[in-house]
Amino acid sequence: MSAPHEEDDFAPSNTPGYKPTAAKSVDEYAKLDAEDESLARWKASLGIVPGAASAASGPKVTILSLELASPTLPPGKHLVMNLQDPAALANFKKNPVTIKEGVEYNVRVTFKVNHSIISGVRYMQVVKRSGVKVDKMEQMLGSYGPHPNGEPYVKNFDTEESPSGMLARSGTYHVRSRVVDDDGEVYADWDWTFKIGKEW
C-alpha cells in the first residue's frame, strides 16, 4: 500500500476549464450520429460498431510494455520492460537499467484497448534518488478505441535528455510508473530502477 504522500506525487495535473465528459460505451459511440455514412465508416475503421463490446469485461486497457528508446543505443540492444511478466518486472526493480549520460531518449508504451473508448489516460512516472523526488513525468496516451484487428497501439512520448556528470552517475534512481485515467482507474503500477553510466 502506498503512503499518502506518495499518492500526492501521482496527482494528475489539471487544465483550467477542462472537464472530462461522461464515459460512453463503444455501443453508445457507435449509435451517435448513426445516419452519417462517412462518420459510420470512420467509426467502423476504429472498431466502433454496434454490439462490438456487448461482452466486454476486464480492464479497458492492458499495458503490455515500456521501452526506453534512443538513437544512441548500440545495434541489437533493447531496453524493454514486459509488464505481462512478473519475473522480468521484479528483475528491473532489483537490477538497475543503465542509461548513458547526456543522451536523448524517449519512453515508448505499447498497450491494447480491450473495450470501450479510452480518453484521459496518461502515463506518469516519479523518479527519486535517496528518497528525494528529482523528476516527475506526465504524458497523455490519447484517445483510442479497440483496434479492429486486436493489435496493440504504440505511443512515443516526448524526447528527454539523460543527466550527465559525476554526481548524476553516483547512486541509483528509483522509479514508480503508473498508467491511470481521469476517473482514477489504474491500469498499471510498477517500480523499476536505473543508473546513469558513461556507456549504455
UniProtKB/TrEMBL annotation:
Compositionally biased residues, Acidic residues: 1-10
Region: Disordered, residue numbers: 1-23
Principal localisation: cytoplasm
GO cellular component: cytosol; membrane
Example of a GO MF term: Rho GDP-dissociation inhibitor activity
Stored InterPro entries: Ig_E-set, Rho_GDI, RhoGDI_dom_sf
UniProt entry keywords in alphabetical sequence: Cytoplasm
Top-level taxon of origin: Eukaryota
Cell compartments where the protein resides: Cytoplasm
UniProt keyword annotation of Cytoplasm present: yes
Record-given protein name: Rho GDP-dissociation inhibitor
Source organism: Lentinus brumalis
Lineage: Eukaryota, Fungi, Dikarya, Basidiomycota, Agaricomycotina
